[in-house]
Amino acid sequence: MYLHGTSRINQAGHLEIGGVDTADIVSQYGTPVYVYDVELIRKRARQFKQAFQNENVKAQVAYASKAFSSVAMFQLVEEEGLSLDVVSAGELYTALKAGFPPEKIHFHGNNKSEEELKLALEAGIGCIVIDNFYEIHLISGIAKEANQSVPVLLRVTPGVEAHTHDYITTGQEDSKFGFDLQNGQIERAIEMVLGDKGFHLLGVHCHIGSQIFDGAGFVLAAEKIFKKIKEWKESFGFVPTVVNLGGGFGIRYTSEDEPLHPASYVEQMIQAVKTQSQLLGINLPEIWIEPGRSLVGDAGTTLYTIGSRKEVPNIREYIAVDGGMSDNIRPALYQAKYEAALANRMNDACNKEVSIAGKCCESGDMLLWDIELPETAAGDILAVFCTGAYGYSMANNYNRIARPPVVFAENGEAQLVIKRETYEDMLKLDLPLKAKVR
Ligand SMILES: Cc1ncc(COP(=O)(O)O)c(C=O)c1O
Ligand SMILES: N[C@@H](CCCC[NH3+])C(=O)O
């Protein structure tokens, strides 16, 4: 069993996270509960920042908040000196409520509404990553009315699509995001933005995918972008001051995953951008990145209580927990794999193969297939590791199951940062049927 960050087995044989016994977390907050190892989030943030500082490169590391968004998380991100990437007015609103400096927020999305854009501009957002022509039109109108010049990046699809370990070159037609780099779209967008006082064009953005295990895709994307920068320099005299290479750095969910150290991804990017800038004889642009999963993924653990079981003779034994696809949809959605352990009996020998089922009314609601655990009993606590990214943020109320609370653990202290949803919370938006008029 692989323990991430500060997770360890304590003298009681229990899983401890951030110096806090998970048994204490369970008795105080119940299950299911998401627990974050705050020290590990800080460590990852510093690793990314340090990698740029080591090379003396101007950079922004923006946390892609879709991975896990909450007021406390945004305050932690600010404490660590990162920027923030949001993709909706909801994420932006949360950030502003958390007191996050608006000038360090970047706004993404392939269909931002006029209302969302207005909120962003009124807040004094640091940068809007423009995705399409419709958005150029919307921002131009809002900026003119407000007499503003909006800092923007243009998102391009560089024709590099990452498939976890693998990456293949594709055309853009299969992506809903960004301007095509090859068919003249991006040149048209640059011309429009440069010719409009409502915009301050900082540079370009790309994001090649998620859970990527090597640096080659990022290098290839940078090379493709710089090939175009050479043309833009000649035709428009436009040289980006910012190149944003997105997020997507992989993490270790199971022993099958072999991600690089955060610094290693960054070093390869820096090398590529330096080489290309030298070849073109241009100043090194600022390099921005947007890690989401790699900042919070392995820092999160979900604790569940084991309940019922079912044996299918000669096939498998199902063990059910008090959560499932409502708090972690990734196994059902992506066949994502995780590792797990019995948090209250970490030293017991794992000699039983079982599969972990959720409690939703859905056969596909399985969290883990065929894993080794000790003999379990109802009431045991199951810890599923690496659930920090796209767990809470994709949680839902299927079957009207309430969303679990989130606890931050650090230096021996546990702090509740998101409360458990109540049934009343779920009913808050419901209205009764109108009385029939007879
Ligand atoms: C534009 C953009 N930036 C950053 C991210 C963060 O990706 P990850 O969580 O894999 O680092 C995503 C999600 O894939 C994204 O779409
Ligand atoms: N939600 C996905 C990642 C999506 C990345 C956002 N563009 C996951 O859980 O892996």
TrEMBL record:
Do the record's keywords include Lyase?
Answer: yes
Q: Name one Pfam family in it.
A: Orn_DAP_Arg_deC
Annotated Orn/DAP/Arg decarboxylase 2 N-terminal domain residues = 40-296
Q: Which cofactor does it need?
A: pyridoxal 5'-phosphate
Question: In Gene Ontology terms, what is one molecular function of this protein?
Answer: diaminopimelate decarboxylase activity
The record lists the catalysed reaction(s) as: meso-2,6-diaminopimelate + H(+) = L-lysine + CO2
Chain positions with N6-(pyridoxal phosphate)lysine modification: K66
Q: Which residues form the Orn/DAP/Arg decarboxylase 2 C-terminal domain?
A: 34-388
Q: Which residues form the active site?
A: C361
Q: Which residues bind substrate?
A: R293, R330, Y334, E362, Y390
**InterPro entries registered for this protein in UniProt:** Ala_racemase/Decarboxylase_C, DAP_deCOOHase_LysA, De-COase2_C, De-COase2_CS, De-COase2_N, Orn/DAP/Arg_de-COase, PLP-binding_barrel
Which example biological process does GO assign this protein?
lysine biosynthetic process via diaminopimelate
Keywords of this entry: Amino-acid biosynthesis, Decarboxylase, Lyase, Lysine biosynthesis, Pyridoxal phosphate
Question: Keyword Cell inner membrane, does the record have it?
Answer: no
Give the pathway listed in the UniProt entry for this protein.
Answer: Amino-acid biosynthesis; L-lysine biosynthesis via DAP pathway; L-lysine from DL-2,6-diaminopimelate: step 1/1
Q: Binding positions for pyridoxal 5'-phosphate?
A: G248, E290, P291, G292, R293, Y390
Q: Which family does it belong to?
A: Belongs to the Orn/Lys/Arg decarboxylase class-II family. LysA subfamily.
Q: What does this protein do?
A: Specifically catalyzes the decarboxylation of meso-diaminopimelate (meso-DAP) to L-lysine.
What is the protein's name according to its record? Diaminopimelate decarboxylase
Gene name of this polypeptide: lysA
